[in-house]
Amino acid sequence: MDLQLKGKSVVVTAASKGLGKATALEFAKEGAYVLISSRSERDLQAAVEEIKEHSGNERVDYTVCDMTKPKQITQLAEKALEWNGTIDVLINNAGGPPAGVFDDFNDEDWQQAFELNLLSFIRTIRAVLPSMKEQKEGRILNIASSSIKQSLDNLILSNTFRAGIVGLSKSLSQELAPENILINTVGPGRIATDRVAQLDEKRAGKLGLSVEELKEKTEKNIPMRRYGEPEEFAKTLVFLASSQNTYLTGQALVVDGGLVKAL
Question: Whole domain around residue 202: which residue ranges?
Fold first, then answer.
């Protein structure tokens, strides 16, 4: 299947590591022009070289962008337009908020999580929409969490603001569909990333288990009996962002090997 992504302009935020980097790599393999961002220039430089090496695509670049800084988000969109003239695809991504329960967090913690995990998505969408509306086409994908379908223990900040992303996407899908701009939310389950490893380590400590014991226990609850790989998650996003997806919008999907039991 030709995904018709060659030469398309793709922006992937928080992409120096983890799911963002894996997603950027899959787009690069399809011949897209890929602009990645994160807060660390050093990590971005390393990620760009790795993506170029594994994809054979030299049209990969970066810009430093802290997703809690509105000016930097605006500059990210400006860099993409300057580099390739359009923004065809936005992959909205941001690092997850701290783990914990309600009594662990004060107003400042809630505000920081809101700015990083919901308001940043709003700002980035706002920054790219003029280009998409002008060309009457675009794809926006918001990376969230499997908590968009089923709340996760000890992750109250994530549970709260990931749900907000779903509401945002659903509302925008109604507004943007007449202009052929499709927007969806995709939540990873237990995907083998540094973020999941950190959460496993913290949870294992609370339960008095080794990380290996916790992982083995968790895998028994996943129908596919293993954690997913970042590239498996990324390939789903690449299809949804491609021209082959012409009718799916406003949806909240999980890539989880069957872990979430909610309908």
Answer: 193-227
